């Protein structure tokens, strides 16, 4: 696995214990097997057709802090204005 993804032994060891939450759309669904190889303890929540504005509801249901460095966004590219609107309640 380390060789496949060009990870150092230290990065591999860290990835195997890291607390990662991945929330995304269909791209997240597609890459779940690869993410699980690198981050075996990751909580992955992907859904086809999901939109960025769904994130607050999902984060709340998972009891996440959306400003956490362990939270990933998939292929969404929200504007700064959209981010401010979405995260206003957090």
The first-to-last residue Cα distance is 37 Å
Which regions contain 5 or more consecutive residues with pLDDT less than 50? none
How much of the sequence lies in strands comes to 5-15%
**Biggest sheet details:** 3 strands, parallel
Report the principal-axis shape.
elongated
Secondary structure: helix percent: 40-55%
Decide which structural class fits the backbone. alpha/beta
Tell me the number of strands.
3
Radius of gyration: 14 Å
Give the spatial strand order of the biggest sheet.
Answer: 2-1-3
Number of domains: 1
Walk me through what this model shows.
The protein has 90 residues and is an alpha/beta fold. The protein has one domain. Helix content is 41%, strand content 11%. Strands 2-1-3 form a 3-stranded parallel beta sheet, with helices on both faces. The longest helix has 13 residues, at 26-38. The radius of gyration is 14 Å and the shape is elongated. The N and C termini lie far apart (37 Å).
What are its keywords?
single chain; 90 residues; alpha/beta; three-stranded parallel β-sheet; 4 helices; 11% strand
Layout: helices, strands, pairs:
Layout: H1 9-17, E1 21-24, H2 26-38, E2 43-46, H3 55-61, E3 71-72, H4 80-87
Give a short synopsis of this structure.
With 90 residues, the chain is of the alpha/beta class.
